[in-house]
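Journal club prep — side note

Before the paper discussion, L.F. wants everyone to see what a predicted structure for a comparable chain looks like in C-alpha cell form. Sequence:
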Amino acid sequence: MNARWRMFILVLTTGVFASIVIACKAQLSSSKAARGPAHGDGGVSAFYLWNGDIPHAPGKLLRQEPLPDHLLLTNAEKGLRVLYTSTNGIDGRTVIAVSGAIYFPKGTVPVGGWPIIAWAHGTTGTADVCAPSWMTRGKRDTDYLNAWLAQGYAIAASDYQGLGTPGGHPWMAVRPEGWSVLDSVRSALTAFPELANAVVIVGQSQGSHAALSAAGLASTYAPTLRIKGTVATGMAGPQYGASRRTSTFLFLILHKFQAMDPTFQPSDYLTESGMHGYAAAATTCVRPGPTVPLDDVLKVWPDRAKVAAVENWPTLRFAHPLFVGIGLADIAALPEFQYDIAAAACRAGSIVETHYYPGQDHGGAVNASLVDSVPFVEKVFAGQPVAGNCATLKAPPTAEPIPATTLH
C-alpha cells in the first residue's frame, strides 16, 4: 500500500467521519413511543409501537399509513410508512415488529405487477429517530431512489431492526439487517397485489453489508422470494467499523453489543467522557462534522473476534448476479477493500460485475454507478444472462482521493 493510502487511512483514524453527537431533525409528534434510554427508543410517533398480538410468522404487514409530504419521493405515485413482522436477528426465533416504507412508481401497473427494489440504506445511527421512514432523506438517496422509480420499479425500504421500533439497533449485524430486508419484501407481497415477486436487492455502505447479508440468507430464510440480482455500492465489509477506530464507529459498535446482550457494560470500554458521548449517541443521528477524539473516550477497543461473530457474511456464493460499484476516491470504504470483497465473491463462484468510478467518493459512487447498474438490473429482471467480469477483474488503480466525510 503506497504512502498516499497510508496517509488517508491516518485521516480516517483521526476522525474525518460524521459525529453522532449532532442531533437529527426529527418530526414533532404529540404521540411518542415508549422510551428505553439504553437503546435510543422514542422520539417517533405511536405508529412504530405495536401493542397488539404479533403474528407468529415473519413477513406479514401489521399496519400502514401514508408518508407525510416531506418524505414522499417525486417519482412515486404514493408512499407508505409500514410496520411488518420479522424474526429477531439477535435471538433467531422471536417474531418482532420492524418499520420501513414502500414506494410505488407512477403509471399503469404492468402485467404481473411492479418489480421490486429492496433498498438497504446506509448508516444513519442507532436511535429510533434515525429511521429513514421517519427522518428526512438526504439528496443523494432521494435522487437515487427516484431514479429506480423512474425505471418502473417499486421500492421496499426497511429501516432495519431497532430503528424506529423498540429495542436496540444491531448496526452491521448480518441477521438483523438481512432478515429485515427480506421481510420488508415478503410483507409487501402479501399486502399489495400490484407488486411482482421479482426482486433486486440494492444497498449502499452499511446497506451494502445488509444487501449481501440478505442475498446470502435468502435461500434458507425466504426461499419463496425470486431474487434476480444484488447491487452494492460503497461496500462496507465485516470489520468495517472495527478497522476505522474513530469514536463514531466505537459508539456504533458498542450500541450493537448492548442491543445484543443486556448484560453488556459499555463502561468496560469507555472513559467517563466516553460514557457521556455514548449516551448522546443513543438519541442522535450520524451527520458530517468533527468527532470526539478517540483518546478522550476509549479505555480498550472491542475484541475483533466478538465483532466478526455477528458481522461475517454466511456466504459470498450467490444464486444470482452481483453488481459492485466502487468509487476510486472512496476513503470511507477503501477501493482495495471493496475489490477484495468482489474478488472473494468471484472465487466463491458468484457472477460478479464490478465497475470503478474515478473521482467518486463513498457517496458519489451511488448515483454515478446508475449508468451501469440500471442496464444490469434491466437484464436480470428480463431474465437475460449477465456474464460478469471476474475473469478480467484487476485491483483498483491508485487514484487521487478527494475529501469525504460521510460513512453512509
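L.F.'s comment for the group: The CA atoms of residues 167 and 266 lie 17 Å apart. Keep this in mind when we get to the figures.
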